[in-house]
Each structure stands twice: as structure tokens, then as C-alpha cells.
Design a protein that fits this description.
heterodimer; B: about 650 residues; Rossmann fold; 23 helices
Chain lengths: ~220, ~650
């Protein structure tokens, strides 16, 4: 559940996808650069990078025609390449100026990504129950901003989450500590197991029929 | 007037005595004894029963055989070419009411019966958005003005002209019952004074004439706003004094205030030299001409327009309409021009309503900002709709529509051939971006396309398919349906949209839609209203008004069975306190029992269908309802919908 009323957050959600192009192995000219990985983790969370790339930077498997947010754990980009990508943007990825993330913070995020070697899966536990997830989705109010099918709404700021465009770990991390307008859900309100059920429900939502095949959407 | 049976008291003799008494009052020193007139009885130590009081008044009553003061008031109102008077009846303006329908023939203005004063004013609000001029509203004493208050505030915030006449009984000795005392007020205008542009209390008929024409002029001068006249019941009901030399002043249509030439030139200099300028349009277009001016300006500079759609400012599918990319463009802009933007500060900042409320500047710190806004020409203190202070670089307190032509010319003077060529490249880029954002909206709309409750995207597109080849007018907001009409429909004409409420006071939409449809009626337009259920329940009686007055309007219910914005607000608090959100529906939903809006509308004489929950049934239901509307009647289709 993501509440990206903040336009910068929206940009983050849709755009970090473009990092994929920069993930090819490269010469680490910045191998000596030592950012503050601990602070980098905080900045990573503040910016909501995990919403697309997962809490461990594991990325999201591609589904259908969608461009998948890539794995960024242990990035092989140079720091200069990483900085240029964030400063200039690329593809759907917007630029981030110094008022949004300073050069030092950028280096810290880079250092944090270098520490990530996680092979964490982007799927909920196999025991997750989508039927219970559907019930929970309505009961705890996810539908209010995201619609009963997770289709999202521009007015509420709730982005489309059905089927989920973000990895499971990113989903859980965002629900617990949203970067945008969404109110945080603590484990007291919804447990990890319940979140897994909700995620499974969202995964069960069908991809939309291509709009070109819906006559009413071509008028 | 038809002859009337005379009362036992001779009218001329009575007037003669009354005039003599008044002259003595004016001339006599304080100690001079005042001769008794029929109504000036000595105070009694014993209370007088209401019945005895009425008998005494009847003895003194005089039938008016000639013209009453209210007849002259009708002459004044007719001189202003006001088409309708929307009112719930009230005794404090019974004189004017009777004169309007008899002396005035109930034409120009025609009396539109309303079930609530909030509906009366909101009808005038919607009407003015289409017609560009005010209606007359009459409200009864304390209670009527109090009922009208919310709608007056909406019109004030939305800068819409409305003429309000409030009845009152000023002379305490002329109030005949407990009720009339309760409905009388020392300073009636104080009820609304904080959110009307001007008010007056005429004490003579000539005073009424001049104040009414003055009120109309003030209401129609940008920034347009409601105006209020308190009209004494006695002034309405008593005869026009013999020999009175009454005149109706000529209305001189005000010229809207245009921007100072030096400031306009400075704005043009910044805009012409900018590499990434952007326009934010709020209430930029007051009339259809405003749309034309904005298009010419935008095309001169090939500048992207972000349309907040407080008015119908800019065609939605124009290549330079970049509303969907608004924040991204603002964040990159080197010059930002705001045209009648209600909240300029909010347009260049983001605001996060989390546990800690924070704001962030979205615009570049070095961006130059220009504001053209007539709101600065008239500001009041108490109500805070003036928003946070925007520290702009070039501040032009003027009407944007009136200023745009000179700004465009000033920009043209600064563009040489080379610069024009460079600007042409901008257009191609924006045209591609506009196509992309339209496609993105279509792709987003495809999700939950077949869902039940019906998605708001499906609702809007089923409606669009039915009206797109008609002369249509959307007379409701698009916000509550996720802005789908703005994102997917082709808005091209000024009448295609009327903007929002201004003050965000719920209960506006239904009557404003009826008022706008009333204005569209003579143009033969198909008025369509996407109506939120919570809003309609504030004043459902407006459906009866639409049926009674045969106002053709298609109302499509966006029935999500909740005050949905408030569900989300309560959820925010529940999450903040980690208490669970399973009770957020308490006090925020209207689902138990579910309201059958079709039956409700039918009970008031409106053709209605629904509730419809299967999207496949929606198109045929809309087609049936549109046939009714084309026949000159209102119709309603109740649709069970997704929240937003």
C-alpha cells in the first residue's frame, strides 16, 4: 500500500526502474570511496527506494509488459555513474537534485547498496492466504485509497497496487514505514503474516486488459 | 392592479396623518409632545394578547391600491436583466415575493422554488459559472440567511457573483409575533458580512435602487463575489410615497482591472527569456474569451499549462496541456507564471500530512515566480481562504483574463525569428508528452474495468461515450472520481466545465449542478452531473426543484456509500495511534441502511434508474436517462461505485 501523494515519491516509485541499465559490471574506480552505509540505509528508506527495489535491493521480477524495478543490491555501477543516474535521471527515472539528496547522502546510499548481497526472495511465504488477504484488505482500510481491486486513485494518492508493482519486501517495508502520505501500519495493527496474505491477494489481481482493446478507452 | 375592498380606515387620511407625525418627529425638540397616531398607543402595564395585537393592527391596516415599494423594487431588479430568483419563501420578503410574481409577471426574474437557502445560493453559484452573471436570491430574516451561509461562503471563495436580498423587520413595534421577533435581527448583514463583498441596508426606495445597482456592479467587478442587501419588510409593503421622484440608476458595466504595464513588461521579459517556463492556471478564464487568450499566450511561447481547473481554462487535449506532469514541470521550471491561482504557495510546495506535518519546496530555489491574481484586490481577515503567503518575484494584482492580451503582446515584442524557431521545438516535445500521459491514463483506467462496485474510470467512460457527440456540459467536480474526465475526456469549450465549489463546503454540488443546468437550458445543452452521495444528502430537495422547474439535467450517482474523505482521515488517526482501523467506518459511512437514490429521486418526480452495480448495465441505463433529459426533464442514475 503506497500513498504517493508527494510527487517526488511518485517519481521514485516509477523511476528507479531505470537503474537497470546501469547495473552492468564496471570498473570500480570509486572502490576507495567509503560512504556511511548506516546513514545510507536511512536515506534509502527516506527516499522510498525500497518501494520499487525491495528492502534488500533485490528488485522485482518482470511481469507482463511492465518494466521491472531491477536488483540494485551490490550495484556494480561506479559512484560517478550512480550519481549521474540520480542527478540526471534516465528513462522513467526522474532526477534528484541536491535539495532532495545531497552529494554526501548519495555516497552514503551507494555505500549501503554495496553492503547488500541479499538473495532475498520477492515473494511472500507459500503459506500466504489470498482469500484471507482479500478480507483483510478491506477490513484494515487498504481499499480506501487503493480501491477494492488495488487499482489506485489519483485523488487519494493511493497508487495502483493490484497486481503489486513492488517486491514483497518493499511492500512490507513501505507499509511499516511509509515515505509518502500513507499512514504507517504497525505490527500491532496488522501482523507480518497478515501482510503476506494481503500481498497474496494483490498478486491474485489480474493484469488489466490492454487499453487499446477496450473501445471505451479509445474515444 | 385589481381593485380591492377598502378597509374601514381611509388610506389617504391615514397616510396624511402618518406623514404629519413623521414631520413632527423630525422637527420637534426632544421635549415636544408627539401627537398620538393610530399605532402610537400609550404603554400598558398589562400584556397584550397576540390576538388583541393582531386585531389592533388590522384596524390600522391599509390596502395599497397603487404601487407598493416592492413593485418599484421589481422595476429595479428587472433593469438588471436578472433571469431567475431562487428562494425558499419567507414572510420578511413576502411583499417582494408577491410583487415579483404578480406585478412582475414572474418573468425576468422567474421564481424558482427551492427547499433550502443553501440550495438557492448554490444554484446561483452554478448558474453564474455558465452564464457569467448573477441570479437573485431571497432569504428570510435570521433563519434564511443562516441557512444560506455555507453556500455564500463557497461562492465567496470561488469568486462568483450572487445578489442576495435578506428580508428583515427593522421596526420593533411592527413585529407581530414571537416568530417574527425570533426571525428579526438588529444587524442582519452581520450574519454573512465576513464572506460577502459588500452589504447595505437601504432605508428608502431610492436608496434601494442605488444600492441594488451598486451591488450588482460590485458583484461583477473582479474579484467577483456575493453581495447582500437587507430589505425592510415595511419598505417593501408600504405604498410608494406620493410624489416620490424615484429613479433607477444606469448600470455601467465595470471594466475588469488589468495589470500595470510596467509589471506586465517585466513578466514578459522573464517569460520570453526562460528555457523552462510553465503556467499554472487557477481561475484564469472568467469567460470563454479567457480560454482563447490563454491559448494564444501559451502558443506564442509554446509554454506548458498546468490547469488546476477552478475554471474551464484550457483544452484538455491541447498539446500544451501538461497538467498530468505538473509537479515534474514545476520542479524543473526557471519561470513560473500563476494565473488566478488560489494557493500559489501550495502549487510550488508539497505538503506531507504524516505524524509530523512537513512541507518541501518543489520548485527550484532560483525559479522566478510571477502571479497575476485579482484576489489581492479584495481581501478580508477572518476567514483564512487567502492561503499561505506566496513570496513571488513579480506580483500583479489584476484580473488575469483582462491582463493576458497585453502580456501576450509584450511577449511577442520580445521574440525574434530565431527565438520563435527554438520555441517551436518545445511544442513537439510537449505534444509527445501529452499523448504519452493520455495513454498512461487509459492504461490506468483499464485496471478494475469490470469490477463491481463499478470503477470510477468505467463510470466516466460509459458516460463519455454517450455524451461526446452532444453539446455537453459537465456541471460537477472531477476530483472525487480521480479526475478521470480531465484525464480522458476532450474538454474544448468554456461550457464544458464549471470548476469546483471554492470553499469545499459539502452540499454544493447537487444544487450548483441544477443551477448550471438551468443556465444551460436555454442553450439546449446536455448538462451532466457526476454526483457524490454524501453531497446530495445535504439537500436532496434540490431534486424536487429540478423536477418542478423542468430543468434538464442528467445526474449520475457516484454512490460509494460514505463520506469517503473522512473515512481516510479517521484511518490516518487510527493508524497514528495504532488502534486498528476496523472501526473507521463509524461516523463516516452511509451504508446501513443503504440509501436508494433512485427511489428518492422518483419520489420527487425525477426519472430514475438503479442502483446499478454491474458495469454492463450502466451504458444502457445512461442511454435511457439521456433520452429523458433531452426531453427537457431531469433524470438520475444511481451507480454503486468504487471509493474514488
Amino acid at each position: 500500500m503506497t500513498y504517493f501523494t508527494h510527487p517526488i515519491r511518485i517519481g521514485i516509485l516509477i523511476s528507479l526502474l531505470a537503474l537497470a541499465a546501469w547495473l552492468a559490471p564496471s570498473q570500480s574506480a570509486d572502490a576507495q570511496r567509503t560512504g556511511d552505509a548506516a546513514n545510507g540505509k536511512k536515506v534509502f528508506e527516506r527516499l522510498g527506494c525500497f518501494a520499487c527495489h525491495g528492502a534488500a535491493g533485490e528488485g522485482t521480477p518482470a511481469k507482463g509488459k511492465e518494466t521491472a524495478p531491477p536488483k540494485i543490491a551490490g550495484t556494480h555501477l561506479t559512484l560517478q555513474e550512480f550519481a549521474r543516474t540520480l542527478r540526471e535521471g534516465k528513462g522513467e527515472m526522474p532526477s534528484f537534485d541536491a535539495t532532495q539528496v545531497s552529494d554526501a547522502e548519495l555516497s552514503d546510499v551507494y555505500a549501503f547498496l554495496k553492503t547488500l548481497t541479499s538473495q532475498q526472495k520477492s515473494e511472500p511465504p507459500s503459506s500466504a492466504n489470498p482469500q484471507n488477504g482479500q478480507h483483510l484488505y478491506t477490513a484494515i482500510g487498504c481499499y480506501e485509497c487503493h480501491g477494492y481491486q488495488g487499482q489506485g486513485s489519483l485523488q487519494t494518492g493511493g497508487t495502483r497496487i493490484g497486481p503489486p508493482p513492488l517486491p514483497y519486501s518493499g511492500f512490507v517495508a513501505y507499509v511499516r514505514q511509509p515515505a509518502g502520505q500513507m499512514p504507517p501500519y504497525t505490527s500491532k495493527v496488522v501482523s507480518d503474516a497478515q501482510l503476506a496474505d494481503i500481498y497474496a491477494f494483490l498478486q491474485s489481481r489480474p493484469q488489466a486488459t490492454p487499453s487499446k482493446d477496450i473501445p471505451l478507452l479509445n474515444k | 392592479m385589481s381593485p380591492r375592498k377598502k378597509n374601514s380606515v381611509d388610506r389617504r387620511e391615514f397616510l396624511k396623518n402618518a406623514a404629519a407625525g413623521a414631520a413632527l418627529l423630525a422637527a420637534a425638540p426632544a421635549a415636544t409632545a408627539i401627537p398620538k397616531t393610530p399605532e402610537s398607543k400609550a404603554p400598558s402595564a398589562l400584556p397584550i394578547s397576540p390576538e388583541a395585537e393582531l386585531r389592533a393592527l388590522r384596524r390600522a391596516a391599509v390596502l395599497t391600491e397603487g404601487r407598493s415599494g416592492s413593485d418599484f423594487m421589481v422595476d429595479v431588479i428587472k433593469s438588471l436583466n436578472i433571469e431567475y430568483v431562487c428562494s425558499n419563501p419567507g414572510s420578511s420578503f413576502r411583499g417582494l415575493h408577491e410583487s415579483l410574481i404578480n406585478y412582475g409577471g414572474n418573468r425576468n426574474p422567474e421564481f424558482i422554488t427551492c427547499c433550502h437557502e443553501e440550495g438557492s445560493v448554490a444554484m446561483a453559484h452554478g448558474y453564474a459559472k455558465i452564464e457569467g452573471k448573477p441570479l437573485l436570491i431571497m432569504a428570510h430574516g435570521t433563519v434564511g440567511l443562516q441557512h444560506s451561509a455555507m453556500a455564500v461562503y463557497n461562492a465567496y471563495c470561488d469568486r462568483v457573483p450572487v445578489i442576495i436580498i435578506g428580508g428583515n423587520i427593522m421596526d420593533a413595534t411592527r413585529r407581530i409575533s414571537q416568530v417574527e421577533w425570533a426571525h428579526s435581527v438588529q444587524d442582519a448583514a452581520a450574519i454573512l458580512r465576513d464572506y460577502v463583498k459588500w452589504d447595505d441596508l437601504p432605508i428608502s426606495l431610492q436608496h434601494f435602487a442605488e444600492s441594488t445597482v451598486r451591488a450588482y456592479k460590485f458583484a461583477m467587478t473582479p474579484p467577483m463575489m456575493p453581495v447582500l442587501l437587507i430589505v425592510d419588510g415595511e419598505l417593501q409593503e408600504n405604498p410608494i410615497p406620493e410624489g416620490a421622484a424615484l429613479q433607477i440608476p444606469k448600470l455601467s458595466p465595470p471594466s475588469p482591472p488589468a495589470g500595470d504595464s510596467g509589471a506586465v513588461d517585466e513578466a514578459a521579459r522573464l517569460l520570453a527569456a526562460a528555457e523552462n517556463p510553465v503556467v499554472i492556471a487557477g481561475r484564469a478564464a472568467r469567460t470563454a474569451a479567457g480560454m482563447t487568450y490563454l491559448m494564444e499566450f501559451a502558443e506564442t511561447l509554446q509554454i506548458p499549462v498546468i490547469d488546476q481547473m477552478d475554471r474551464m481554462n484550457f483544452p484538455t487535449r491541447h498539446p500544451l496541456n501538461q497538467t498530468d506532469r505538473g509537479r515534474d514541470l514545476i520542479s524543473k521550471a526557471d519561470v513560473i507564471l500563476g494565473l488566478e491561482v488560489n494557493d500559489f504557495w501550495g502549487a510550488v510546495h508539497s505538503f506531507l500530512d504524516q505524524v509530523e506535518r512537513t512541507s518541501t519546496l518543489v520548485a527550484r530555489a532560483d525559479a522566478k515566480t510571477i502571479s497575476i491574481n485579482s484576489a489581492d484586490l479584495f481581501v478580508k481577515s477572518n476567514y483564512q481562504n487567502f492561503q499561505r503567503y506566496p513570496a513571488v518575484d513579480v506580483d500583479i494584482p489584476a484580473d488575469a483574463e483582462a491582463t493576458l492580451p497585453s502580456l501576450t503582446e509584450a511577449v511577442k515584442r520580445r521574440l525574434d525569428a530565431g527565438r520563435k524557431s527554438a520555441l517551436a521545438d518545445r511544442r513537439a516535445k510537449f505534444a509527445a508528452a501529452r499523448e504519452q500521459s493520455l495513454q498512461q491514463a487509459r492504461d490506468a483506467a483499464a485496471y478494475a474495468w469490470d469490477a463491481s462496485p463499478i470503477s470510477t474510470a468505467r463510470l466516466c467512460q460509459e458516460l463519455w461515450a454517450q455524451i461526446q457527440n452532444e453539446d455537453w456540459s459537465l456541471v460537477s467536480s472531477t476530483a472525487f472520481v480521480s479526475f478521470w474526465p480531465r484525464r480522458l475526456w476532450a474538454f474544448e469549450k468554456y461550457c464544458h466545465f464549471i470548476g469546483g465549489s471554492g470553499g469545499y463546503g459539502i452540499g454544493y454540488n447537487a444544487p450548483a449542478a441544477v443551477g448550471a443546468a438551468l443556465a444551460n437550458k436555454k442553450h439546449g445543452r446536455l448538462s451532466v452531473n457526476i454526483q457524490c452521495d454524501g453531497d446530495l444528502m445535504y439537500g436532496p430537495g434540490i431534486l424536487w426543484t429540478a423536477a418542478h422547474s423542468q430543468i434538464p439535467l442528467l445526474t449520475v450517482m457516484h454512490n460509494n456509500r460514505a463520506y469517503h474523505q473522512e473515512v481516510m482521515q479517521v484511518q490516518i488517526m487510527a493508524n497514528r495511534h495504532s488502534r486498528g482501523v476496523d472501526r473507521a467506518h463509524i461516523g463516516t459511512t452511509i451504508s446501513d441502511p443503504p440509501i436508494d437514490y433512485a427511489k428518492m429521486a422518483q419520489s420527487m418526480g425525477v426519472f430514475a434508474d438503479g442502483p446499478i452495480s454491474d458495469p454492463k448495465d450502466l451504458g444502457p441505463a445512461l442511454a435511457r436517462a439521456i433520452e429523458v433529459v433531452k426531453g427537457g426533464q431531469p433524470a438520475l442514475v444511481d451507480v454503486l461505485t468504487q471509493p474514488r
